[in-house]
From TrEMBL, chain A:
Entry superkingdom: Eukaryota
Presence of the UniProt keyword Transmembrane helix in the record: no
GO annotation (BP), single: protein ubiquitination
MF GO annotations: ubiquitin protein ligase activity; zinc ion binding
Official protein name in the record: RBR-type E3 ubiquitin transferase
UniProt keywords, alphabetically: Metal-binding, Repeat, Transferase, Ubl conjugation pathway, Zinc, Zinc-finger
Family annotation (PANTHER family): RBR FAMILY RING FINGER AND IBR DOMAIN-CONTAINING (PTHR11685)
TrEMBL record, chain B:
Alphabetic keyword roster: ATP-binding, Nucleotide-binding, Transferase, Ubl conjugation pathway
Enzyme class: transferase
EC number: 2.3.2.23
Stated name of the protein: E2 ubiquitin-conjugating enzyme
Pfam families per the UniProt record, alphabetical: UQ_con (PF00179)
UniProt keyword annotation of Transferase present: yes
Residue span(s) of domain UBC core: 4-154
Region (Disordered): 156-180
One GO molecular-function entry: ubiquitin conjugating enzyme activity
């Protein structure tokens, strides 16, 4: 129980855990982070939480825009170009060969320049830059053409081909194979790399654009600490030091400047508090079991009292039957009146006692029920987050009306925007708490987790209910204050929950009923 | 480019038929189409395949020589680097799209395949089980390979295998696809 004490103090200090301005968007802390240093073994993990004001699920990361990515490459190229006295194109080829590890490049090049250049596909000669030439008696070895004015080209190795063949070869590599950084001389057995200047000389501008795009791509892909933001149309990359082997201790959520929040470990949307491996297992399970579970995520259900069909049209789980006015919870179909009190038990699956689970059939039914319990809640928050989003879009119109009706300015109605964002982030978190809980084995910490989950869930449902009110109700200034307070409260409850789960994860205090380290994918016998 | 490719093909075919590589005879599947070759390959002396005659079908893509040729066995063969089915797919480093060079000649491809029969490459297998057997139970492997030779690779070579599922040129329909 030794760990229990400091754990309790971390969660029980209700209101003053965090300064009030700790918005969840403000996750990055770039100033005190210097990437030029030798990477620290656990760079991404703030191991000294509690000492710093930082929350334990905060991860160090940096957003790079396309110009930053270009500049980083240019800076390294210029440096190597000056130190080694080679052209910039050659410096780039060397750097790519060393996966942009400048220190190792320089060290190795000092010791054994010949071997290094050969391995990287660089010519040893210091011949001038390649150019197009017309040589009498030349026969192209690729197309077997010859002729008076046949223009030809060769890089420093001297393997000469006609310009048409060279161009066709390059466009096949760039467009057909998506290759850029490692295009070799077309000669059989020659591993010299075609430099970017030769390429610019030979191919059409539209292909050069693609070529340089691919080069940038390999820069990011070659570095383990860099990943592209997966948002469509986003060109940014994120730098983060969290290593693959640390993913059982930390959930590295990063936020791109484009607004997209994703996991640096697996590139999926933010899935805190569940570790990547659980997410992978959970998604696979959901896909496998989708047929059994599909009916649950359907948009309609029957009223538990009068059986009339009820369609869920907002994010709120508090349902009122239009026909009989029965109030119930969408998730558990239980009485809503039981939900505002200590009776609230919508989030925790009550394990049935042993008697029912005696025979195998009953046990498998219990295990399915257990899965459905968590899946139901997971799917519900996922769906609600989507509905909340739709409602916000509708609310934008409402916000305009609200301005007219109440005389509030555009800025003054922005609290609805904040509420909508809070709803979505919190539902995203809630959704993954259920996947997390599904794999969680009970110990003395799970109850606190379930309490945190319940608190957040209740706050979110309350906010969701207020958020759906109509314009007339919304123009009541009292409701505005309530919504703002509830928004702040939701955000705070979310942070408390994430702090708790992250701290325990980092310390290895959770027990899961599955293996958390990913089994290395069995290497297939044949790659094509 | 199409005419260039035609010129190169004609030259390669002429070279290959004038001085064919050791133990091989080369024909076009159809006199008017340079894109499909039928090669008969004798099992290299001293190997388990000696005494067998193997059919190879070479399909040259329209974009040849910028894209690699498709080469497959028409005759069943028990070999770690050849699929053990009626597709006869071959795993050969120099034919993989990232490795293929447009200056590589079919002559070197054919020689590489002959080399593969003389010395299988169990480290990069298409048939993991056969590769494992080759490495751990050479006697059993040789027995199986010889029995395949006796069963499939004696007598006149037939080229009527299932058409390759890649680079199907469309123009040449043999109409001889066997039932699977
Ligand atoms: Zn040419
Ligand atoms: Zn060359
Ligand atoms: Zn982005
Ligand atoms: Zn992840
Ligand atoms: Zn009802
Ligand atoms: Zn409920």
């Amino acid at each position: 129980m030794d760990s229990d004490d400091d754990f309790m103090s971390a969660v029980s200090s209700e209101d003053d855990v965090l300064p009030d301005d700790s918005e969840n968007e403000d996750m990055s802390d770039a100033e005190d982070f210097d990437f030029d240093d030798e990477p620290d073994p656990d760079l991404g993990m703030s191991k000294d939480f509690g000492v710093k004001k930082k929350v334990p699920f905060d991860i160090n990361f940096k957003v790079f825009h396309p110009s930053d990515i270009q500049k980083q490459q240019d800076d390294l190229i210029n440096e190597v170009n000056m130190i080694l006295d080679i052209s910039k194109e050659e410096a780039a080829i060397l750097l790519r060969h060393f996966r942009w590890n400048k220190e190792r490049l320089l060290e190795d090049s000092m010791d054994k320049q010949r071997q290094v250049f050969e391995a990287a596909g660089l010519a040893q000669t210091s011949a001038g830059p390649p150019r197009l030439e017309t040589i009498p008696g030349f026969v192209c070895d690729i197309c077997c053409e010859e002729g008076e004015g046949l223009q030809s080209f060769a890089i420093k190795c001297g393997h000469r081909y006609c310009v048409d063949c060279y161009r066709h070869y390059l466009s096949q590599k760039i467009r057909g194979e998506g290759e850029a950084a490692r295009i070799q001389c077309p000669a059989d057995g020659c591993n010299l790399i075609i430099d970017s200047r030769s390429l610019d000389l030979l191919v059409m501008p539209e292909l050069t654009g693609r070529y340089h795009e691919l080069l940038n791509r390999t820069y990011v892909e070659d570095k383990d600490t860099l990943k592209w933001c997966p948002a469509p149309d986003c060109q940014n990359a994120i730098e983060c030091g969290v290593k693959k082997k640390e993913l059982d201790k930390v959930v590295p959520t990063v936020a791109c400047d484009c607004g997209h929040r994703f996991c640096f470990g697996c590139i999926l949307n933010d899935h805190q508090p569940a570790p990547c491996e659980l997410v992978k297992k959970w998604l696979k399970k959901c896909a496998d079991d989708s047929e059994t579970a599909n009916w649950i995520s359907a948009n309609t259900k029957e009223c538990p009292k009068c059986n009339s069909t009820i369609e869920k049209n907002g994010g709120c789980n508090h349902m009122t039957c239009r026909k009989c006015k029965h109030e119930f919870c969408w998730m558990c179909m239980g009485l809503w009146s039981e939900h505002g009190t200590s009776w609230y038990s919508c989030n925790r699956f009550e394990e049935k006692s042993g008697t029912e689970a005696r025979d195998a059939q009953a046990r498998s039914r219990v295990s399915l029920e257990r899965y459905l319990h968590y899946y139901n809640r997971y799917a519900n928050h996922e769906q609600s987050a989507r509905l909340d989003k739709n409602i916000y879009q509708k609310t934008e119109t409402k916000m305009v009306q609200l301005q007219k009706e109440s005389g509030m300015s555009w800025i003054e109605v922005q609290y609805l925007n904040s509420a909508s964002q809070a709803l979505q982030t919190c539902r995203q978190t809630l959704m993954w708490t259920y996947a997390f809980a599904f794999y969680l084995a009970r110990n003395n910490l799970t109850e606190i987790f379930e309490d945190n989950q319940k608190d957040l869930e209740m706050a979110v449902e309350a906010l969701s209910g207020m958020f759906e009110k109509n314009v007339t109700e919304l123009s009541d200034p009292k409701l505005k204050v309530e919504i703002m307070d509830k928004t702040a409260y939701c955000n705070k409850r979310r942070i408390i929950l994430l702090e708790d789960t992250a701290a325990n994860l980092a310390e290895g205090r959770w027990t899961f009923n599955v293996e958390l380290t990913s089994g290395a994918a069995a290497s297939s016998s044949h790659r094509r | 480019m199409a005419s260039g490719s035609q010129k190169r093909l004609a030259k390669e075919y002429a070279d290959c038929t004038k001085t064919p590589p050791t133990g091989m005879s080369i024909h076009l599947a159809n006199e008017s189409d340079l894109h499909k070759w039928h090669v008969t390959l004798e099992g290299p002396a001293g190997s388990v395949y000696a005494g067998g005659r193997f059919g190879l079908i070479i399909t040259l893509p329209t974009d040849y020589p910028f894209k690699a040729p498709d080469v497959r066995f028409a005759t069943r063969i028990y070999h770690p680097n050849v699929t053990n089915d009626n597709q006869g797919g071959i795993c050969l480093g120099l034919l993989k799209s990232g490795n293929w060079k447009p200056s590589t000649r079919l002559l070197s491809v054919l020689e590489a395949i002959r080399g593969l029969l003389a010395e299988p490459q169990p480290d990069d297998p298409l048939e993991a089980r056969i590769a494992h057997e080759y490495q751990n139970d050479r006697k059993e492997f040789e027995k199986n390979a010889r029995s395949y030779v006796n069963h499939y690779a004696k007598g006149p070579v037939k080229f009527d295998v299932a058409p390759p599922n890649v680079n199907a040129s469309g123009s040449s329909k043999d109409g001889a696809a066997p039932s699977r």
